[in-house]
Amino acid sequence: MDAGSSGGTSGASGQRDASVTFIPPIPDAQPWVEPDVGEPVVVRAPQNIESMRIDPADLILQLARGKSETVTFKAFATLQGITGEVEITDRTIFYVPDNYLVGTFPADGSSLFTTRLPASATEPPQRGGKVTIQAQAASNDIPITTVTTTLTVTIIDSGQPRTARGRHPAIPSDPGSKFTDGNSPTLAPRSSIQMME
């Protein structure tokens, strides 16, 4: 054997290259699966209010004193790009901006109006009168829409009407019947001279 032979593969320097590079086997190719993108996304058109109204409008409510009544209001609107009127009560905030002692809506702005009754003797008495009913609803691309109507609450007292303070009672139909005791000298008017005697 040739003295210069190493019996293996020689590098450029004449030494054996002991490094080994491991190449992993290529796995079997997997079939392509279409990803699940879920249900199609529906893009809704903007809902912008063109006109809006409150129902009922200009209502007159009568109730007995000491009783409370409720009224359910609704809101209707015409929207841009939609034919006809639609109800939007569920997206409307109701509010009483004045005369709240007559009645008001819940704190969440829902549509049930309730006339007020005092909860204790220290609170203001029950009141009637005219209140403003205000409704507000939002649109996508325009400012908030605000509309108003009125509600008039009339309180009816039961029984006979009370005589107002300072007024005289009604004259009876036969006033002469109230004077049946005859003449009495002690009830006759006296002059100033008679009173001095």
SSE blueprint and pairings:
Elements lengths: L48 E7 L3 E6 L5 E3 L1 E6 L5 E3 L4 E4 L7 E2 L7 E4 L13 E9 L7 E12 L35 H5 L1
Parallel strand pairs: 2-10
Antiparallel strand pairs: 1-4, 3-8, 4-5, 6-9, 7-8, 9-10
What is the arithmetic mean of pLDDT? Answer: 79
* CATH fold-level topology of the domain at 49-156: Immunoglobulin-like
Helix content: under 10%
CATH class of the domain at 49-156, please?
Mainly Beta
* Spatial shape: rod-shaped
Give the structural class: mainly beta
What oligomeric state do these chains adopt? Answer: single chain
Largest sheet: 4 strands, mixed
Please list the strands of the largest sheet in the order they lie side by side: 2-10-9-6
User: Rounded to an integer, what's the Rg over CA atoms?
Assistant: 47 Å
CATH architecture of the domain at 49-156: Sandwich
CATH H level, superfamily name of the domain at 49-156: Cadherins
Q: Low-confidence stretches at least 5 residues in length (pLDDT < 50)?
A: 3-14
Number of helices: 1
Write up this protein.
This protein is mostly beta strands. The chain has a domain at 49-156: Immunoglobulin-like, CATH 2.60.40. The chain is 3% helix and 28% strand. The protein contains 1 helix and 10 strands; from the N terminus they run E-E-E-E-E-E-E-E-E-E-H. It has one helix at residues 192-196, and strands at residues 49-55, 59-64, 70-72, 74-79, 85-87, 92-95, 103-104, 112-115, 129-137, 145-156. Strands 2-10-9-6 form a 4-stranded mixed sheet, with no helix packed on it. Strand 7 and strand 8 (112-115) form a beta hairpin. The longest helix is centred in the C-terminal third of the chain and has 5 residues, at 192-196. It is rod-shaped, with a radius of gyration of 47 Å. The relative contact order is 0.16. Residues 3-14 have low confidence and may be disordered.
